[in-house]
Design a protein that fits this description.
This protein is of the alpha/beta class and about 270 residues long. The chain has eight helices and ten strands. The strands form two sheets. Strands 1-10-9-6-2-3-5 form a seven-stranded parallel beta sheet. α7 links the parallel β9 and β10. It binds 2-amino-2-deoxy-6-O-phosphono-alpha-D-glucopyranose. 2-amino-2-deoxy-6-O-phosphono-alpha-D-glucopyranose binds next to loops.
């Protein structure tokens, strides 16, 4: 696993945005062969989305031939509810770039048959030849998408009941009222993320430091579902200094040194 450590949340976001733009450009997508991108919601990817919008407006990148699959969506809140992940994605990214609406895929948490929605989602990802790059964030309990602690590390897209910690964490978006937070969500599985050819996880802030420690220095565990990425051939964790605060000093130094050597700068010890 590659660990990229930047000073601030914004630096981390800019690095991640730039890295993925580079990947899209190298791929040179066409309508016939689009770049298939997995996307998260949450505060962590916000600096990435802001940078993509800026670079799109500057004429540096087009999303015309990008197809997106979002990670998750709440069950039972209307799509136009300000806290639905549909609304989040349109207002924070899709409305500001040139992605065609038919290229956008988000799970429908209001469908009468939720299991069918999940099955069809997996089939559609397959139909596009799989996800080229999955961008993700993590919850303070180390969950990816809504794969809460204890989720199967081989899981596929399905309905999940949210944990108390996640409902509490997400209540900040619902007037700090836990009773307003949906208790269920549709989410891609850990297995779905693992199938992507590359995975990039953005993690910022002190409140994620314990999760970062478990995921990087701990073993693979269903209690910290992102830790499954230790088994991925091309996984990157991009984090800020604050998120590394519970790592051993030696680990931080080690990963920073590798990045310096990769950029042909021999570090001084
Ligand atoms: C929710 C989402 C996750 C996201 C997490 C962290 O639980 N389902 O995909 O990673 O929140 O959000 P934030 O980045 O706001 O801390």
């Amino acid at each position: 696993m590659r660990i990229v450590i930047k000073e601030t949340r914004d630096d981390t976001g800019r690095w991640t945005a730039d890295y993925i733009i580079g990947k899209i450009k190298t791929f040179a997508p066409t309508a016939e062969k689009p770049f298939v991108l997995g996307l998260p919601t949450g505060s962590s990817p916000m600096p990435v989305y802001e940078e993509w919008i800026r670079r799109y407006k500057a004429g540096d990148i087009s999303f015309k031939n990008v197809v997106t699959f979002n990670m998750d969506e709440y069950v039972g809140i209307p799509e136009d509810h300000s806290e639905s992940y549909h609304a989040f994605m349109y207002s924070n990214l899709f409305n500001h770039i040139d992605i065609p609406p038919e290229n956008i895929n988000i799970l429908d948490g209001n469908a009468p048959d939720l299991e069918k929605v999940c099955k069809d989602y997996e089939a559609k990802i397959k139909q596009f030849g799989g996800i080229e790059l999955f961008l993700g964030g993590i919850g303070p309990d180390g969950h990816i998408a809504f794969n809460e602690p204890g989720s199967s590390l081989a899981s596929r897209t399905r309905v999940k009941t949210l944990s108390y910690d996640t409902i509490l964490a997400n209540s900040r978006f619902f007037d700090n009222d836990m009773s307003k937070v949906p208790t269920q969500a549709l989410t891609v599985g850990v297995g779905t993320v693992m199938d992507a050819r590359e995975v990039v996880i953005i993690i910022t802030g002190f409140n994620k430091a314990r999760a970062v420690r478990e995921v990087i220095e701990g073993g693979i565990s269903h209690m910290w579902t992102v830790s499954m990425l230790q088994m991925h051939e091309h996984a990157i964790i991009a984090c800020d200094d604050a998120a590394t605060m519970e790592l051993q000093v030696e680990s931080v130094k080690y990963f920073k040194e590798i990045e310096e050597i990769a950029h042909s700068k021999m570090p001084t010890r």
